[in-house]
Amino acid sequence: MWAEKLTVYTFTGLVLAYLYFMVPLMVVTVLPAFDGLRSQWREAAASCGATRGQFWRHIGIPVLTPSLLGGAVLMFGTAFASHATAAVLVGGSVQLITIQIANALNGNVLAGQENLALAMSLNMVLVALLVMAVQIPLQRRSARWLG
Amino acid sequence: MARMTSRGPVLGIAALYFLVPVAASLWFTIDSPDGIGFDVYSKGLGSEGLTTSLLRSVSIGLATVALGLLLMVPTTVAVALRLPKLRRIVEILCMMPLVVPPIALVAGVATVLSWQQDLATTPLYGTFQALIDRDFPLILVIVYTVMSLPFLYRSLDAGLRSVDLRTLVEAARSLGASRTQTLLQVVAPNLRQAVMGGAVLSLAMVLGEYSVASVLGFEPFAVWMVNVGDSEAQLSVAAAMLSLLLTWGLLLLLTALAGGRTRKTQSRRKTTS
Question: Which chain regions cross the lipid bilayer (chain B) (predicted)?
Answer without folding.
Answer: 60-81, 93-116, 136-153, 194-218, 238-260
